[in-house]
Design a protein that fits this description.
GO terms for molecular function: ATP binding; ATP-dependent diacylglycerol kinase activity; di-trans, poly-cis-undecaprenol kinase activity; metal ion binding. The protein is built from five helices and no strands. With 134 residues, the protein is an all-alpha fold. The radius of gyration is 20 Å and the shape is globular. It starts with a helix and ends with a helix.
């Protein structure tokens, strides 16, 4: 097998059309949603945040921060799932400290961005709730 054959093999896996790329990406999101319980929980939280934003009539800037938080958490959760799948594939489901570390770090990244989302929600909604109560 020469180098040209190897390049042809790589091209078979490369998306040549925008529609095909979008289709693969959408399939990835739907797969993550179906297979990952935490992603479904984050999606429910996102819906609740949007409802709260509508109820409390948050400003445009507040919407930007809320939506940034929601999309970051969901994106990080999808990446975490992808990393977990690749690690499982590479380790053939055998315990490895490196595999554990990779999976723990990916989960840690989700935790960090979820903390950002929580702080953002608190900063935006606590004063509004406080005004309602007092």
């Amino acid at each position: 097998m020469d180098l040209r054959d190897n390049n042809n093999d790589k091209r078979k896996w490369k998306n040549r059309e925008l529609i095909a790329s979008l289709e693969f990406a959408l399939t990835g999101v739907l797969t993550a949603f179906k297979e990952e319980r935490n992603l479904r929980k984050h999606a429910i939280s996102a819906v609740l945040v949007v409802i709260a934003g509508l109820i409390f009539r948050v400003s445009q800037v507040e919407w930007l921060f809320l939506l940034l938080s929601v999309f970051l958490v969901i994106a990080f959760e999808v990446m975490n799932s992808a990393i977990e799948n690749v690690v499982d594939l590479a380790s053939d489901y055998h315990f490895s400290m490196l595999a554990k570390n990779a999976k723990d770090m990916a989960a840690g990244a989700v935790l960090i961005v979820s903390g950002f989302a929580l702080l953002t929600g608190l900063i935006i909604f606590v004063p509004k709730i406080w005004q309602l109560i007092f």
